[in-house]
Every structure is written in C-alpha cells, then in structure tokens.
Amino acid sequence: MAESLVSGVAVRLGNSLIQEANFLCGVRTQVELLQTELKQLQGLLKDADARQDESEAVRQWVADARELAYDAEDVIATYALKVGSRKGGSIQKVVKRCAYILSEGITAYNVGAEIENIKMKITNLKMNFRDYGIKESIIQGDGSSSSNEREREHRQTFSHLEHDLEDEDIIKKLREILCEKKCLVILDDICDIETWNILREAFPMKNTSSKILLTSCNKEVSLHVDTEVFLCELQCLNMARSWELLEKIVISRRKDCVTNVNKPNIEKLGKEMIEYCGGLPLAITVLGGLLAAKQTQDEWEDKSKLLRVLNLNSYQRENLTKDIGRFIHLRFLSLKNSNINKVPSFLGNLRCLHTLDLRIRDSPVWHLIVPNIFKEMKQLRHLYLPRVYKVSEKLALGNLCNLQTLLNVGPETIKMPTSFRFNYLRTLDIKIQVYDEGPHLIQMLVSGCPHLYQLVVFYPIKKLTETHQFSPNLAELELTFTKLEEDPMPTLEKLSNLKILHLCYESFVGKDMVCSEGGFPLLQYLLLDYLDKLEEWRVEEGAMPSLCHLIISYCGKLKTIPDGLRFVTTLQELEINFMPKSFKDRLDKGGPDFYKVQHVPSLVFQHSDKER
C-alpha cells in the first residue's frame, strides 16, 4: 500500500536526521519540512488507497504519491553519500576537504531545490485528494524521536508475537492436517538443502494423500527431498528470449515513447538490466512492469532508482560489474552460492543496505579477501560473510548498531571497540578462520550481545564463557570444535530459555558429562554428535523436564544410555546414529537398557548394525 510506503519513508527521513546529522546539516530544515509534508500525505492515502476503484484519477494520484516517496528518499540518500564520502580523518582527506567546501555548498543548494520541487508536487497532490473528497486520517505521534518510533514498533511486534504458537505446535498441527486431509502444498523458492531440512519435519512424505509442489533454482534440493521425486526441470531463457519477453511487455506498450532514434539506446539499456534477471521469466516480467511506467530514456538510464532488491544467488561470473556500486538505494543484495572470486570494494557505496549476503559457493579460491567496507553501512540488519575468507585489514563493525544477524565472523577478522554493544543482534555465528587469536575476543562478542537468540561457535575456545555472560534470551546454541576440557553442562543447564542445544564435533573432549536436577528447564532438542572421548553421561531425575527429541551420533566410547532418561517423560523421539551394535542391542526390546526408553514413542536406529 502507498500509505505504508510513505509512512516508512517519513520514519526513515527522521532516522536520517539523527544518524546522518553531520552530513545533512546543509539541508536539515528542508528535510524536516519534507518529513512533515509526507506525514500529511500519509493521512490522506489511507482513504485514497481504499477508493482506487472509483476513478482512474485516484489510481494515478496514489501512484504519483508512491513515486514522490521514492524521490524523497533517493534525494536524501544520494546527498548523504556524496558528502559523507568526502569526510574522513587522514591528513590527505583534510586537505581535500578544503577543495570540496564550495562543491558541498553547491550540492546542498541543488538538493534544497530538488526538495522544494518534491514538496510543491506533494502540496498539489494533497489539493487534488481534498478536492475529490478524500478524508484525512490523523497520524499518531509527532515523529520527533526515531528511538521512540523504534520502541513503539518493538512493543507492537512483541505484543503480537506473545500469542503466536511455538514452532513445535505449528509443526504438529501442519502434519495432522496434511495426514488427515488431501492438500496441495506449494513451497516456492527453497534455495538450499539447509532450508528444506528446517522445514521438512512439518511435511510428511509418506502415509498421506497430500501432495507437495516444491520449486527451487538448485537441482540438488529436489534430489535431497526424495530420491523418487518427480522432477520437472525448467530451462531459463537465453538472452535473446529474455529480451523478446521484456520488449513485448515494455516497448509494445510504450510505442508512443519509443522512436527509431532512441530505440537502439533503450534496447542496449534493457539488455544490460536483464543480465541480472538470470533468465527467470518472473524477474523479467517484474522488471518490465517497472519500466513500462517510465516515460523517457533518461528514466531508464536512472535504473539505480528502480532497484531496492538485487538477488544474484548462484551468479556464475567470477567478477561483479562496477555498475552495482552505483545502485546506492539497494536494500537487499545476495551473492549466495555465486562463483565470484573477489568481494569488490565498491560494495562499500551501498550505505542503504539492510541485508548483505556474501556466502559465496565453496571453491578452490581459499584466499578470498573481504575488504573493510562495512563502516558506513549503518542501516545494515543482516550480514552474512563467506564461510572461508581472509581480510587485508580487520573489519570495522562497531558502527553497525542495527545488526540483527551476523554470520561467519571470526574473532581475528573484526575490529571492535571494547565498549561496543550489539543491542539488536539476535543471531551470531562465530567461525574459525585462523588460530592466532583467542577466546577473550569471543567472550567479548558474546557478552556484548544482550538480546542474542541464536549462537553458533566453531572455534577452539577450550573454556566456556560464564553463564551470566550469555544473553538471558539465548534459545539456540551450537558448539563445534570448541574443545572444551571441562564438562559444559553445569554452565549450559543454567540458561533458562535454552530450547535447542547442539554439541558437535569435538565440542567437548572430556570423558564425563552430568545433567543436574532442575537443569535445562526448557530444553526441547539435544544433539550429541562426534563426542568421541565421551564415556559416561549421567542425567539426574528432574533434569531436562521438557526434552522432546534426543539424537546421539558417533559417540563410539559412550557405554550406555543415561539411567535418568527414564524420568524424562516428555521425550517423543530418540535417534541413535552410527553407534556400535552393542550400544543398540542394549536398547532393543529385551535388552538391559530397554527399561530406560520404553516410554519413548519413537526409537530410530540408523547405521548402528555393526561394531565400531
């Protein structure tokens, strides 16, 4: 809806006045007035959106409002980028600043004129709405504080989520419906195997009349779902057919604007754009819809204004075109599973990004360099670094105060001030890159994230962080190759909100592990994998009172299942994978340990039919 778009732009302009105060000082008053105009326009759009069917004029006015909102945001973002890129602390930059002062004054004057032009158009648009009889709604709040806006948004979000079902309840409900009824389920764009593994529990593959239609750009996903799956492999369009489709959508509708003089130039621009569509008809159709509304070649050339989302998943070329560095209004950029061999420095121009996914495909390019480009990406919410990479200088992430997701970060690859805090970070994945820097940096990272929900550590820390240094909200924890020498359970079992715990390859290198009475009050899922030194695991009565799913894999020296599991009455499934045959035999009906698990509805044994 145009109303929500205009509202979002008004809020972001308010945030810019605070976050970019130094850069916007030359046009601050104009930006404040523009924000007020947008809020007044927002008040009219609620009724206008609902009455678009009444008149072609109203539909056009709503479309104009959407364009004006984009124009407003683009003008401010462009100005902040131009001025901000000239400011810095080195002697050379200070000298250059003297030469730029006059230029900045001219830039501010031009931007001020553009803002006045947008305000005049908004005023005319408001008059049209009012003359037509569009009612004005009152917008609550004065917008004077972006932090208040964020706080209100935070409260509204969580008041809604409080009534949501738990994941396990949703999975159970879905399975019941799909087994009892005949349904067609469409899962669109499952991009990787990991995503399917997360979803698969909710969708029964056998003993059901329901059918699942799954789409993916990754053939491996379809083969992983089921070896007997019916595979319909669609071919992407080549360049000629891609252009034919775009031409059909755009040029055939805009014959009045396309002449023999400018058609070659428009065709050249169009072919440049469809390269990013990857031969996908839907992407080309969406692009065509955007371009069909553009009147002139100049508007086509200003393609950076159109782009907010650029998905280059599985991009096959080794280098990115420099044009991407000009798309300064991008909010989302993904290079996941692409084949690029270099992360270009011009990505640092994309200061409006909310999501940046650099998880390129693993390849022999083990020396991929990630440049220090994140300092000015202050709006970034989600940053996914490559699985394996190096840095020429440590990455400065201290300014990214809005981060919610940070994956594949290594303590030796980042530069953080000692007093930093990621107040909004919910997911943190710490991966080993080199061994030369230690656990104290990990401890600093973890303790600086007070609202962390999910934590993954792949690093030989040897000693676990104290319980009080973990986020009290931590619900998912995965430890791999941490090489803990002391039993981690006395620390981890005090994490009162922990629901999922993975102890993977050499996370613990000791022999004994004990879960105490009252420990892990909310734990529902526990994985013990490749703990090849573990010999004895004890579970006291009253421990893990909420456990539903337990998996034990590759723990070859573990002698027997804990006696205390017989008191865990909530346990629904026990999986034993790649364990010695003698371990499995003890759990079979009639075996000496069967009494410990006879209450468990589902016992699953995989690859445990021989001694190991």
UniProtKB/TrEMBL annotation:
Domain Disease resistance R13L4/SHOC-2-like LRR: 305-432
Organism domain of life: Eukaryota
UniProt-listed InterPro entries: Apaf_helical, LRR_dom_sf, LRR_R13L4/SHOC2-like, NB-ARC, P-loop_NTPase, RX-like_CC, Rx_N
Keywords: ATP-binding, Nucleotide-binding, Plant defense, Repeat
Domain NB-ARC: 165-254
Keyword flag Transferase: no
CDD domains in UniProt: RX-CC_like
Every Disease resistance N-terminal domain range: 6-90
GO BP of this protein: defense response; response to other organism
Keyword ATP-binding: yes
GO molecular function terms attached to this record: ADP binding; ATP binding
Official protein name in the record: Disease resistance protein
Taxonomic placement: Eukaryota, Viridiplantae, Streptophyta, Embryophyta, Tracheophyta
